[in-house]
Amino acid sequence: MWQAIKEFCSRPRRLKESGILGMNCRNYAVISACNKRSLYPLVDDKVQTKLLANKIGITTPGLIGVIEHQYDVKNFLEYVKNYSEFVIKPAHGSGGKGVMIIKSYTQDAFTTPSGKQLTFNDIYQHISNILSGLYSLGGKYDVAVIEELVHFSNIFEKYSYQGIPDVRVIVYKGYPAMAMTRLSTAESGGRANLHQGAIGVGLDIQTGNSLRAVQHNVPVSIHPDTKEDLLSIKVPLWREHLEIASKAYEMTDLGYLGADIVLDRDKGPMMLELNARPGLAIQIANGRGLAGVIEKIEKTYPKNLSWKERVDFVLNAH
Question: Which of 61, 112, 174, 274 could cross-link with 116 by S-S, CB 3.0 to 4.6 Å?
């Protein structure tokens, strides 16, 4: 299979020589070869992903409820009556679209992390938009997932503006291959979305230490809002992050995937979601190409190891 990747990626030569994995190469020679389309629902449906993860011991944000029908939207306060805060998201959303975080509320007023005040009608309309497919892949009818809010570790508090930072790990045939953390900014509206102005910080796959940072694909070293040194980041519980990513391969049988992980102050690393078509900006954040990493895994990494053995191998590789 690696020969097909090399042949397909042979143009332009400059990208090949630098080990960059391009979009066409990713789609044709990696995703098509490693990910059966019949398996996509395992990661495209956040409810199904959560249930599978919990079965194999991967911690995820607690599920409060699922709203499937328009007639039930008016009753959404019944779902959250025992919770002081919550998150609403589409089950089939992507890129953080359609995610609404409520930090506190009364019967009539709902407060977001930025302090914005929303009305009952605002929440009602947002859930209705989710059900109509406004945020879902392909615009298909969707369901609204209500989850417990993650309380991210204060270790990252000075590196992220308002929003919850996460760690994206690219996994190839069960091996954690490349990682970055995504940090929200004022420009990104408190969301860890690189396209909206969040910062991507490449992480050493063996240590979880920062390597370099970029915003809008331009190298940066200081967070524009918090003024903290982005190159001093060290992700704690790094092995546990890699274990979640490696287990996701057993859970889905997807040969190429992205695992998004958050660090909760009480529960430790938690899997937020999985992606069968992870983007390629992680290469810019790391300053190196994925194609070279994939080639090394194909040629030199042992086959048929358990998830734990794969993590051990990555952490001790030379």
Answer: 112
For 283, what's the count of Cα atoms within 13 Å in the CB-facing half-sphere? 18
| pTM for the whole structure | 0.89
For 55-75, write each residue's pLDDT tens digit: 999 999 999 999 999 999 999
Among residues 86, 120, 147, the one where a domain terminates is: 147
pLDDT at 8: 46
What DSSP string describes 40-85?
THHHHSHHHHHHHHHHTT---PPEEEEE-SGGGGGGHHHHTTT-S-
- Residue 269 · residue 240 · CB < 8 Å: yes
Nearest C-alpha neighbor of 105 from the set 77, 139, 65, 140:
77
Least confident of 31-40, 107-116, 263-272: 107-116
Give the sign of the dihedral formed by CA 266, CA 271, CA 273, CA 279. positive
Q: How far is it, in rounded angstroms, from Cα 210 to Cα 13?
A: 29
Residue 103 near residue 85 (C-beta atoms within 8 A):
yes
What domain range includes position 190?
A: 37-42+153-316
Please check whether residues 163 and 137 belong to one and the same domain.
no
Instruction: Determine, yes or no, domain membership for 57.
Output: no
Q: Are residues 107 and 12 in the same domain?
A: no
204: helix, strand or coil: coil
Coil/strand/helix, residue 259: strand
Tokens 């390629």, located at residue: 280
CATH number of the domain that residue 125 is part of: 3.30.1490
Q: Is residue 13 exposed (0-12), middle (13-18) or buried (19+ Cβ within 10 Å)? A: exposed
* CA pair distance 235, 261, nearest whole angstrom: 11
Average pLDDT over residues 153-179: 91
pLDDT, tens digit, for every residue of 26-49?
Answer: 888 899 899 999 999 999 999 999
